[in-house]
Amino acid sequence: MALTLRGLEVCLVVVLLSIFGGIQGEEESVITLDHSNFTDFVSKHDFIFVEFYAPGCGFCKTLAPEYEKAASILKKNDPPITLAKFDAFEAVNKPIARLYKVSGFPTLKILNNGGKNVQDEYNGPRKADDLVKYVQKQLGPASVEIKSTNDAASVIDLAKSFIVGVFPEFSGEEYENFTKLAEKLRNAYDFGHTLDAKILPRGDLSVKGPLIILFKPFDDLFADFKDFDITAMEKFIVKEDDPSVTVFNMDDPGNPYISRFFSDRNLNTKVTMILNFASDNAATLKSKFYDIAHILKGGKISFLLSDLEPNNERLLKFFKLDGSLVPLIYIQGNGGKKYLKANVEDDQVVPWFKKFMDGKIEEFIKSEHIPQENNEPVKVVVLKNLQDMVFNSGKEVLLEFYAPWCGHCKKLAPILDEVALSYQNDPNVLIAKFDATANDVPSDKFGKVASYPTMYFISSNKEMIKYTEGRTKEEIINFIQKHRHDDEKEMDEPVSLTDEL
Ligand SMILES: *[C@@H]1O[C@H](CO)[C@@H](O)[C@H](O)[C@H]1NC(C)=O
Ligand SMILES: *[C@@H]1O[C@H](CO)[C@@H](O)[C@H](O)[C@H]1NC(C)=O
Asked: Thioredoxin domain: which residues (predicted)?
């Protein structure tokens, strides 16, 4: 009896497994490749889209269902397009990943001509639709012909920039130059060409061409140009496709204008206004901000505008600013200096900005107030007293840079307390902590503090050593004893240590 029941159980498990297996086994559209078959498979394809991923990477996991969906759509394309994935983290696969210059995950690249041509990495949004559009666009011509008003409406997305060449005929040097440029910039911009300017949106242009029109979703909404020298055209496009004010939006990670603002290619001065778009004076503040941006457009200065909403809070955090300061104008100067106008009022925007341009605004230094009491074993250092407490104190200082939210810092805190207690009778040693989210870390001294906790030992003769030893009380004390510069170096362990024994 028992045996039969067992048999039944096994049976059920088998049934369940096969149902589960049935769902799981539904054929994947994404092709899996590894070191054993990558080169062979790629060499047999003229066009293949590859995701180089790492199994543990969060962005890769988010991408997976979208990528699969895109693959299932694109394999029905005419001709079918193959999407493949390659675990670039697996040791045996790494040589191939290196060959394709994979440096982050996921890396998405189109390989053409049996893998001989490798296109630039795809950096756009990662929803299935976006991926499909991107891939299809790579297959087609770099510039599409616009024959009718309907064509124009379906091809030109007025929410983005779009470049149209108007020609009396599709031949001649102007047309050829335009086509070459479209090919060169196909990943960055959308291009079209037409014989009839009248079918284009925004205006009844009766021009015959040759003429280039750039449609854009901001400022003057379009601009035109008549020089068909390739370099000149490219310059025109880059210059015109540059909004005087970029609107920040955390939900739009692929937005090219936002990444351009932060990527700092031109070492611009960057001006950000953060305000609550729902507040009464939002419209006035915004329009003053736009006024300034329009006047200064073209100079080495860029403008970003952001609504104070929960999703955008990362922007405040990034600038180490607090929501209570909003509405605010924050300026990152090209020399690394910062300037802040907090709680800015309508009639202060323009005058404050004029003062800034005249060099009359004092640099903004982010520091907490110097604490009135500092009685805990580990002393609190803020930017305002960093010089006095650390560099000019003549002490042997162990300084921890921490963030209140950091788990490793919380673990380290009681250990640092113990270390500090061990030295409580040694006036020459100071154990201190510095909240790096509430105070600027002077990069001239400490470089970029990229992770927490980061600890530095600054000896009484101002020698600085980054602490990279273990995080136990003993290891820290040993380190201090080894590196302290004063006479105590030769002495025994600190008193309280021996007390414990
Ligand atoms: C490549 O090899 C892996 C591992 O053997 C396999 O899972 C995968 O299906 C193969 N891909 C192709 C296209 O043959
Ligand atoms: C086409 O481009 C080349 C190279 O930029 C330039 O020398 C030539 O003058 C251009 N032709 C026209 C008609 O602008």
From this structure: 19-140, 338-485
